[in-house]
Amino acid sequence: MSVLPKALTDLIEAFNALPGVGPRTAERYAYWFVRHDDKSASKLARALSELEGGIGYCEKTFALVPAGQRLSDLYTNPERDKTLIAVVAEPFDILAIEKTGQYFGTYHVLGGLVSPIDGVTPEQLHIKELVNRIKDDNVKEIILATNASVEGESTALYIQQQIANKPVKITRLAQGLPIGVDLEYADQITLGRAILNRQTVNS
After folding, report:
1. Statement to judge: residues 109 and 158 lie in one domain
2. How many domains does the chain have?
3. Is the domain of 44 the same as that of 76?
4. Termini Cα distance of the chain
5. Residue 125 Cα distances to 33, 94, 117, angstroms
6. Are 122 and 168 within one domain?
7. Residue 16 maps to a domain
């Protein structure tokens, strides 16, 4: 005999299936909806039901767009520089870069990173489409904005190899120590990048 109603256990299981959500957190989320008014639950249910049919992918950049829209607004915007492409792993990486207010080029979403352990090969990513864009948009620079992880570095290296013979400048996001982080708490990859990307200080 179950201690909790099936409707509640089903909700807990649904939350628990989300990445980064453990059993206790899933229980807290579910109980929050039980304690609050029906409007909160209805709003979540409506948002989830509209999710599947309300989202599409840009045919050029593979960024998220409203369903039925062929191209991303960031791609069609005449104020964006199509000759400059920031290559990112996932659509939400675009949001992180846009928040800086320092980038005015376009994007290309790979749809993941090369990871043999997870069974993700280069052929499963949007790398071929990126190569085609170099010619189509007369691209002058490609910024490899993948994570500073083993998978991110491997993916960046693979892309470099694929476009090595193209007349395009290839750059990588500068990586180093975040402001306010002590050396003893920095991971090896971050600290190593900080050493490699050290800058000259004029006296």
Report:
1. yes
2. 3
3. no
4. 76
5. 38, 17, 15
6. yes
7. yes
Instruction: Check residue 199 and give its pLDDT.
Output: 65
Tell whether 75 and 132 lie within a shared domain.
yes
Amino acid at 90: E
Whether residue 20 is found in the same domain as residue 91: no
Q: pLDDT tens digits for 122-147?
A: 999 999 999 999 999 999 999 999 88
Judge if 103 and 48 occupy the same domain. Answer: no
pTM of the model: 0.80
In the numeric block, the tokens 């190569």 are attached to: 131
Query: 100-115: buried (b, 16+ CB within 10 Å) or exposed (e) per residue?
Result: eeebebbbbbbbbbbb
30-39, 72-81, 150-159, 175-184, range with the lowest pLDDT: 175-184
Range of the domain at 80: 57-172
The DSSP line for 97-121 is HHTTT---EEEEE-SS--BGGGTB-
DSSP state of 177: P
CB neighbour list of residue 85: distance below 8 Å, 6 or more residues apart: 105, 106, 107, 108, 130, 133, 137, 139, 141, 142, 143
Q: For 27-77, what is each residue's pLDDT tens digit?
A: 999 999 888 877 888 888 888 888 878 899 999 999 999 999 999 999 999
- Assign 203 a pLDDT band (cuts: 50, 70, 90): very low
Within this chain, do residues 76 and 148 fall inside the same structural domain, yes or no?
Answer: yes
155/147 Cα distance (integer angstroms) = 9
